[in-house]
């Protein structure tokens, strides 16, 4: 979805031609995987950080067209709404002091973007969902002026036969509403963690391990309890995004989902599912050879699995596979973000090195149930782990998964001091029981329920740079 397109209206012939190209490129990827022709290279990590452009009152400021020229940085790009922004990181070999270098990069990019926003008398906020936003803010006039987003909206509602989007989320409060475009997707901003595998054989286990850890990770990182004045889930971004783009009612065609099963023999199964189950939304024909996989990559970009396999290309043109782990919200601070990424990098490596694959110990239905329990209840969730053991997720993280993350980071070659520094932040977060969601709820309860005041206090604490477990309410 990061590729801009030149048109937003399509004819039946466009869909047929795109389907042929998609089938050809899927078959080509299958051949590459069967022949193990993807080069084996060091494990790398990266990220995408989405954020909100806000005014002095903490309200959304649709001004992305004025901000981007001030930055003049190809790594900073527009998102669906004119009050959203995305910062893209570089890929880092996961060894030595990679986590601190990643932190330095994200800090520099964030500082530069904020300075540019402040020239406009605006600011940036990294938070899963902006508590002050109202439904009226999500209108087509606030859509980024890019053809791909207008085309997406047109195609989604053509397939829906112009039936409005329905949100129905039951949490601490119950939110029900109708909406007539895809703009509600812009209510959700995330910190997407990328992990490149060393080869095709490893990708299946990484994909499955990523699904297994999604529940505990979303509990650890939750930062999105409020939408339109309603207190919903600890990570309400999950149900909002899933319900904001719905085409058909079948689990087989949900554009945003946890999925229906683990991958079994090859990650190609996911791309074959894309080909066979998901209607084409953007049938743009590219003048590129099949080896560029342009149509496969664009189509994959319109299916937002919480764990999404991606095909990318290195600077030398060689293809690679990576997993985009999409479950963590934006914020609260850069320290929290890199600590969250460290956990994901480390715990998945530990699970990959285990003799018994974790997906054989935790059924897919259990991993899926864990994910939604953790999104709803955050650090108060109780989930099921290997052997059918039930435990509070906070205890599971403290006693099992954080130690595994430590061993996994060590196996990657991350420096011992780095491991202690970044996972130490998570030790303290678990000890305090305070992530972004719990801080927001505590502040809201103790200060008269004023969401605007809470948002401004959140911004002030974010500016301090202290990790969220140290924020006073």
Characterise this structure.
The protein has 473 residues and is α+β, with helices and mostly antiparallel strands. The protein has one domain (12-466): Creatine Kinase, Chain A, domain 2, CATH 3.30.590.20. It is 44% helix and 15% strand. It has 14 helices and 16 strands. Strands 1, 2, 3, 4, 5, 8, 13 and 14 form an eight-stranded antiparallel sheet that branches. It has a two-stranded antiparallel sheet with strand order 6-7. Strand 15 and strand 16 form a beta hairpin. Helix 1 crosses helix 8 and helix 5 packs parallel to helix 10. It is globular and about 60 Å long. The two termini are 38 Å apart.
Please give a quick description of this structure:
The chain is of the alpha+beta class. The chain has a single domain (12-466), classed as Creatine Kinase, Chain A, domain 2 (2-Layer Sandwich). Helices cover 44% and strands 15% of the residues.
Instruction: Tell me the CATH architecture.
Output: 2-Layer Sandwich
| Number of structural domains | 1
Distance between the termini: 38 Å
- Total number of β-strand segments? 16
> SSE order in H/E notation?
HEHEEEHEHEEEHEEHEHHEEEHHEEHHHH
Tell me the number of helical segments per DSSP (H or I, 4 or more residues long): 14
Structural class: alpha+beta
Largest β-sheet summary: 8 strands, antiparallel
Mean pLDDT: 95
What fold name stands as the CATH topology? Creatine Kinase, Chain A, domain 2
CATH class: Alpha Beta
Give the overall form.
globular
Strand content: 5-15%
């Amino acid at each position: 979805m990061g590729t801009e397109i030149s048109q937003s209206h399509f004819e039946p012939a466009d869909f047929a031609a795109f389907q042929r190209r998609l089938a050809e490129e899927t078959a080509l990827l299958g051949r590459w995987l069967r022949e193990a022709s993807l080069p084996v290279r060091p494990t790398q990590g990266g990220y995408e950080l989405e954020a909100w452009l806000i005014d002095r009152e903490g309200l959304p400021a649709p001004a992305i067209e004025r901000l981007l020229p001030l930055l003049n940085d190809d790594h900073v790009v527009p998102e669906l709404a004119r009050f959203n922004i995305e910062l893209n990181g570089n890929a880092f070999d996961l060894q030595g002091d990679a986590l601190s270098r990643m932190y330095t990069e994200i800090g520099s990019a964030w500082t530069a973007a904020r300075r540019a926003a402040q020239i406009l008398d605006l600011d940036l906020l990294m938070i899963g969902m902006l508590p002050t936003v109202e439904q009226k803010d999500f209108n087509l006039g606030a859509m980024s002026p890019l053809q791909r987003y207008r085309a997406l909206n047109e195609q989604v509602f053509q397939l829906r036969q112009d039936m409005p989007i329905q949100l129905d989320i039951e949490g601490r409060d119950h939110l029900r509403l109708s909406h007539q475009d895809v703009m509600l997707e812009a209510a959700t901003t995330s910190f997407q963690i990328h992990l490149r595998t060393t080869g095709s054989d490893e990708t299946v286990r990484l994909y499955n391990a990523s699904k297994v850890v999604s529940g505990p990770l979303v509990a650890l990182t939750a930062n999105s309890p409020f939408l339109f004045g309603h207190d919903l889930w600890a990570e309400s971004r999950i149900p909002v995004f899933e319900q904001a783009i719905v085409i058909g009612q079948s689990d087989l065609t949900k554009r945003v989902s946890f999925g229906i099963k683990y991958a079994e023999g090859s990650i190609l199964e996911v791309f074959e599912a894309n080909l066979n189950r998901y209607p084409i939304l953007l049938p743009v024909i590219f003048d590129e050879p099949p080896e560029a996989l342009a149509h496969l990559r664009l189509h994959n970009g319109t299916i937002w699995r919480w764990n999404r396999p991606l095909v990318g290309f290195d600077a030398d043109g060689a293809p690679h596979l990576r997993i985009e782990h999409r479950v963590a919200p934006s914020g609260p601070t850069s320290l929290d973000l890199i600590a969250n990424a460290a956990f994901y990098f480390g715990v998945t490596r530990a699970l990959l090195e285990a003799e018994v694959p974790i997906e054989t110990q935790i059924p897919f239905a259990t991993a899926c149930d864990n994910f939604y329990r953790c999104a709803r209840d955050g650090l108060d969730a109780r989930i099921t782990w290997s052997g059918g053991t039930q435990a509070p997720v906070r205890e599971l993280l403290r006693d099992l998964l954080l130690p595994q993350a430590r061993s996994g980071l060590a196996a990657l070659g991350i420096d011992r001091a780095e491991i202690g520094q970044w996972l130490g932040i998570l030790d303290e977060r678990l000890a305090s029981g305070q992530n972004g969601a719990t801080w927001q709820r505590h502040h809201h309860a103790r200060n008269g329920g004023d969401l605007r005041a809470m948002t401004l206090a959140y911004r002030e604490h974010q500016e301090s740079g202290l990790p969220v477990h140290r924020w006073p309410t």
